[in-house]
């Protein structure tokens, strides 16, 4: 596998950004792979949570080992603390990831597919929200997975941490989130009314996670809208041990030839 750290200038954000990328490569470890078979590669975008950045998935999980026998590109971008959102302070993080980044990827790595049916997104916590938001708010992704996602917002402060001023800086008037472009269920309703393909959704959350009820509500809402949602529940808390473990379940759910390491002879 090739592991790359890319630093690039974002014209959308008007500042330097970073991302990590893992690419499959032909080598003596994969003698059956050909250059031709590594074209039109499926891509999985992995999104970080609060307090994280583009490096978190590589630092907290064994993602390279997990996918080492799978022909897939993994793209790990950063959104800082902006919730994958076009903020009220005029930094358009959603646009940077939903519109600008796929074009940048295609310029740098033309072997990565641009087809929605081969582009997937997964995130943990804040990144779970971002994954569903990117899939519902664009036509770029056909599958979106959330691990312990922060999916349902309240009408006052979205979550019981951080000052109200922080949340207002991201979303504006907190009482106006429902019905806005930052509300996943509003996006889901609009998507159902459009003529574009509907993404498949995945959610995992541990019973001991403080976002467990949040995930139950989100899945119920999406199922009421007739979305195809794979919902998995196990014991677990809000930590990387579980997100790494259930990332493999996400990979098995995706329409790719994922090979678990323990299956290898």
Automatic annotation (TrEMBL):
Pfam families assigned to the protein according to its UniProt record, in alphabetical order? Esterase
Q: Would you say which domain of life the source belongs to?
A: Bacteria
Any GO MF annotation of the entry = acyltransferase activity, transferring groups other than amino-acyl groups
**UniProt name for this protein:** Putative tributyrin esterase
Q: Which organism is it from?
A: Pilibacter termitis
Traced from the root, the source organism's taxonomic lineage reads: Bacteria, Bacillati, Bacillota, Bacilli, Lactobacillales
